[in-house]
Design brief:
Helices cover about 50% and strands about 10% of the residues. It has 5 helices and 3 strands, in the order ααβαββαα. The protein has a 3-stranded antiparallel β-sheet. The longest helix has 17 residues.
């Protein structure tokens, strides 16, 4: 018997015009979420949820992804059974010029300082 066809899974994302600066800053204040942003910024491809290095469980990491998505910082989408993540870099730059790049630059400086 053939399996019934199901609709593609989709993820809701806010329009960045409806996202406040406070919401973005609240999302970025958490070090785990900044780590997610930093890893996405350094990646040469979109990353699946299970590929992040984070000091929390996958279920807790899911919460952090939701906060970042609801603040408009990341976009999530399904490819097969994997949920992939990408930064909304261009959209964030239009809405909050320089903010995301400043966060990534600061994370890079912190990582460099911690190695020395």
């Amino acid at each position: 018997m053939a399996r019934p066809r199901t609709a593609a899974r989709t993820v809701e994302h806010p329009n960045l015009s409806e996202v406040s600066l406070q919401q973005v800053l609240d999302a970025l204040v958490d070090p785990v979420r900044r780590t997610v942003v930093f890893q996405l910024a350094r990646a040469d491809a979109d990353m699946s949820c299970g590929s992040f290095e984070a000091p929390v469980s996958l279920s807790t990491l899911t919460h952090h992804f939701n906060v970042l998505r609801e603040a408009g910082v990341i976009r999530q989408y399904y490819k097969g059974t994997a949920k992939l993540n990408t930064l909304r870099t261009e959209e964030m730059e239009e809405r909050f010029p320089g903010l995301l790049s400043a966060v990534v630059d600061a994370a890079t400086a912190e990582e460099t300082a911690s190695r020395t």
